[in-house]
Structures
1.
Amino acid sequence: MRTFQELLAFLGESDNPGYHELAIPKGEVGELTKVLEEALEAMDCERQGAPLMALVELSDLIGAVSHYLEKHHPTISLADLERFSEITKRAFTSGRRS
């Protein structure tokens, strides 16, 4: 796939649309497949022009990441990821990575 639009086209339309028009595969809670599912659902919401629903999916995405951490990295928290994100932001803003 070269673009997100190509990825969304690859997924195709759902045979039985509910909230989502795309045929998004279900992921497994605690696995990266669930993180991907929630990200794809957020993209589908954006594609539908439903920003509030996209924000709900982003909330679900945070939950999926939290479950992934609990299962695979139990000593790491969302707060740890957020702290590192702030450090990365600082490095990119300053232009210094060392």
2.
Amino acid sequence: MASPEDRRYLESHEWHKVDGDLITIGISQFAVDELTDITFLEITAGGQISAGDPIGEVESVKATSDLYTGISGEVVEINSELADHPELINEDPYHNGWMLKIKPSDPAELDVLLSAADYDAKH
């Protein structure tokens, strides 16, 4: 399955999508397939964050993985529905399974992230 082309990606499998003046972040279908059934999500980021910072962790029946941001800015929203329903990430990682939204301090940081084609070529 090809990754959506309207996003930029980190090698650690987080996607970043421009959503108006915000950037929405989640994890890729590849990551979901590798993790299998996601059982818990904890977003620890809040306030100002920098590109490369950890933003939380996701747990599955198979592994626990740290989550990172590829862009600096201010966390403005966390998908609170995932606290009670982490399975939404498995069901729809690119839409209902989004994790947080950031108001970027420098949107040009997205340009250094992987395109969908480059991300898919690595995975």
